[in-house]
Design brief:
Shape: elongated
CATH class of the largest domain: Alpha Beta
Strand order of the largest sheet: 3-4-5-6-9-10-11-12-13-14
Largest sheet: 10 strands, mixed
CATH architecture of the largest domain: Alpha-Beta Barrel
Radius of gyration: 21 Å
CATH superfamily of the largest domain: Aldolase class I
Distance between the termini: 28 Å
Mean pLDDT: 94
Strand content: 15-25%
Number of domains: 2
CATH topology of the largest domain: TIM Barrel
Structural class: alpha/beta
Low-confidence stretches: none
């Protein structure tokens, strides 16, 4: 039985140096391989032409680039594209390309499914299946046609990034390293419900932007929307965040999906101002994309505008995120769920 080959995509420079050392290749070959993958974005070892033919053949016995194209793409009338990737275990994850006037953002996934089970999230309804490797995370960036137009990446797709922190940090290292993508950390945002241990590690080991999923400033209500509140309370999260400086390069933001008659009153706006007082942060208000069997509706635009204006007037920079891709399974997890159900019927 043939042994599965290891993927080079997703390896750090130190790991590539181990590869070249094991195969008896010159030490400098590791940087050459990194350049072929992360700079030139080759699809095969044969394309690495500054390596000797002998070394390329030797590498091919044990390794492959490890990139795989999306199996499906859904295109919205607004230019948004939702890509579906199949993992080696036969599961599916999504990445969403969002073009804007001067930006092109890719929203990537970090897990198959999710343990957090937020009431409003389709991915949470799938339950948790597996965490993605750095290879599978980076492949979402590596293998889309628009990869060279990207200006930003956000870890806001399927899964909880801090529940897979080792692989997420590894992917971030490669994205920002001189041997890797050479991106500024300011181009990358990682979103989390606020797993406390992972939160502290992320802040101290990465310079990328941080977004916390908030959705209600009232702990009891947040727990009804987000069960993780019971283990990682928003007040404890905010207390921890006060220990760090977000006034310089790194940005701290809070994601707030607005639900009609649930978390969109002026009482909620006032509680947000009280909760976040003294933090250098911003709030992103998000329209809710309906999902099956969940009795929640999105707030009206007028309510969102009044909410935004109150927060802004009280010192919290607040934006309303433009809604994209509403004609193509807009909510995260919708496409992968549909695909999983389709496969089960076959």
């Amino acid at each position: 039985m043939e042994t599965a080959k290891q993927a080079l995509l997703g390896m750090t420079l130190a790991e590539l140096q181990t590869v070249t050392s094991t195969l008896g290749m010159p030490k400098f070959a590791a940087k050459q391989i990194a350049s072929w993958i992360y700079d030139k974005k080759v699809s095969s070892i044969d394309e690495m032409t500054n390596l000797s033919l002998k070394h390329r053949e030797l590498m091919k016995e044990h390794y492959e680039v490890g990139a795989s194209a999306p199996v499906e793409a859904m295109r919205s009338i607004d230019g948004t594209v939702k890509y579906l990737f199949r993992t080696q275990t036969g599961n599916y994850v999504e990445a969403v390309y969002i073009p804007e006037e001067e930006r092109a953002t890719l929203c990537v996934s970090s897990q198959v499914g999710c343990k957090m089970n937020c009431l409003f999230c389709m991915t949470g309804k799938q339950g948790y299946t597996a965490s993605l490797t750095a290879n599978q995370i980076l492949n979402q960036i590596y293998s889309i046609p628009e990869r060279d137009t990207l200006t930003n990446v956000v870890f806001m797709g399927m899964g909880e990034p801090f529940d897979n922190l080792d692989e997420v940090l590894k992917a971030l290292t490669i994205l920002t390293a001189d041997y890797g993508y050479k991106w500024s950390p300011k181009r990358i945002t990682v979103s989390s419900v606020g797993l406390k241990k992972g939160l502290r590690r992320f802040i101290e080991e990465s310079d990328c932007h941080l977004a916390i999923s908030l959705h209600s400033p009232i702990p009891e209500q947040r727990a009804s929307l987000m069960p993780a509140e019971r283990a990682y309370s928003i007040t404890d999260i905010v207390d921890l965040l006060h220990n760090y400086d977000f006034s310089k390069q790194r940005r701290l933001s809070f994601e707030y999906i607005m639900f009609k008659g649930v978390n969109d009153s002026m009482l909620h706006a006032k509680e947000l101002v009280r909760l976040l007082r003294g933090l250098d942060c911003r709030i992103n208000l998000i329209r809710f994309h309906a999902i099956p069997n969940v009795d929640l509706e999105g707030s009206s635009m007028n309510v969102m505008i009044d909410f935004r204006d109150y927060l802004t007037k009280n010192g919290i920079f607040t934006t309303i995120r433009a809604s994209r891709g509403e004609d193509i399974f807009a909510a995260c997890g919708m496409l992968s769920t549909a695909k999983e159900q389709q496969m089960k019927k076959q």
